[in-house]
Specification:
Layout lengths: L1 E8 L3 H19 L3 E5 L4 H7 L5 H9 L2 E6 L12 H11 L4 E7 L12 H4 L3 E7 L9 E3 L4 E3 L5 H16 L4 E6 L5 H14 L6 E6 H10 L6 E4 L1 H15 L6 E5 L5 E5 L16 H13 L5 H14 L13 H33 L1
Parallel strand pairs: 1-2, 1-3, 3-12, 5-10, 8-9, 8-10
Antiparallel strand pairs: 4-5, 4-11, 6-7, 11-12
Helix pairs in contact: 1-10, 1-12, 6-7, 8-9, 10-11, 11-12
Length: 365
């Protein structure tokens, strides 16, 4: 059995996560994957119930799981809480040793119309952001006084080396190019970043490396996104650039992400927030959560199951099923049900192909 801990979280989190889990349950039943699901409190809802966004029982369950699916966290009602919901997210990444955040964004052929960029610019854009997740300014020492404040940004050579290896290995499965993004003309941490990434690149002679300042990268993502394959960058820059990148595909609601470490469970979450304004209205786009499920299946090594679910998701979008963020009128639940209908169709066809292949192999033996 494969144990999946589900953290529905806050706002639209339970809605989008529910649709993704329903897809996984169908896939598991039809293909005998043995996926099991257990929900735990996390984020703002955990603050209300337990006084902390990451209760000990939730953390322990995550450590024992094979993978963790997260919806979203946060909301205005916890802005003045002693510990905000987002603190739980930072801590769970640290506790599980999740140092690499993978955020893919792809403009599907036939969906160029939903991108705010001209079709000739956005067409065929396919980018993976590899973001360092446990260092940098988010984890540095903070000071706050009446008239001043500071946030320490620091990185070690080891932290940069391990995330760089993830980026170069990822590029080998894509188009063999890494763009390392920094601000080395200003920041000491970026000078070290550029130096270490250059050294790591020597071990990957088949992968092209280019360096780019973060401001130049932000412009190029909009003017020439096809020039990028894998973008490697530190925590803060990666957070900002990957959200910018999401718009190229048409909506932040389309994209999922995976946070992984050396060992232990990965954490899979859509890159959008909790969107409290539409929570409970059945208007959210579950595509990002379903994309997370695809990434989880691939990370767990469950054969072609991830590809089959991805095909069903893409088919739904290309058929014109779109939620409000994409200019459509499909509800969250309607979109999820249509994905499952396409998933059933994909499964029936994949099973038929498998049977035909087995029969032909027997005839040729």
């Amino acid at each position: 059995m494969i144990s999946i801990v589900v953290l529905p979280g806050d706002g639209i989190g339970p809605e989008v996560t529910g649709e993704a889990i329903s897809c996984l349950e169908l896939l598991s039943k039809e293909r005998g994957l043995g996926l099991t699901f257990v929900e735990q409190d996390f984020g703002g809802v955990a603050i209300d119930k337990h006084g902390h966004p990451l209760p000990p029982e939730t953390l322990e369950a995550c450590k024992q799981a094979d993978a963790v699916m997260l919806g979203a966290v946060g909301g205005d009602q916890w802005n003045d809480a002693a510990v905000r919901p987002e603190a739980g997210l930072l801590r769970i990444r640290e506790e599980l040793g999740l140092f690499a955040n993978l955020r893919p964004a792809k403009v599907l052929s036939g969906l160029q119309d939903v991108s705010p960029l001209r079709p000739d610019i956005s067409r065929d854009a396919d980018i993976l952001v590899v973001r360092e997740l446990t260092g940098g300014i988010y984890f540095g020492e903070r000071t706050r006084e009446t008239h001043s404040a500071s946030d320490l940004c620091s990185y070690t050579r080891e932290e940069i080396e391990r995330i760089a290896h993830v980026a170069f290995r990822s590029a080998r499965h894509r188009r063999n190019k890494v763009t390392s993004v920094d601000k080395a003309n200003v920041l000491a941490t970026s000078k070290l970043w550029r130096e270490v990434v250059t050294e790591v690149a020597e071990g990957y002679p088949d992968v092209e490396l280019e360096h780019m300042y973060v401001d130049a990268c932000a412009m190029a993502l909009i003017t020439h996104p096809r020039r990028f394959d894998v973008i490697l960058t530190e925590n803060l820059f990666g957070d900002i650039l990957s959200d910018e990148l999401s718009v190229i595909a048409g909506s932040i609601g389309l994209l999922g992400s995976a946070s992984v470490g050396v060992s232990g469970p990965g954490l899979f979450e859509p890159i959008h927030g909790s969107a409290p304004a539409i929570a409970g209205l059945n208007e959210a786009n579950p595509a990002g959560a379903i994309a997370c499920a695809v990434m989880m299946l691939d990370e767990l090594g469950l054969g072609d199951s991830g590809r089959i679910l991805s095909t069903a998701l893409e088919a739904t979008l290309l058929e014109g099923y779109r939620t409000a963020d994409l200019g459509g009128n499909a509800t969250c639940s309607e979109f999820g049900e249509r994905v499952r209908a396409n998933l059933r169709d994909c499964l029936s066809r994949s099973d038929a192909y498998r049977e035909l292949f087995a029969m032909n192999r027997g005839l040729c033996a």
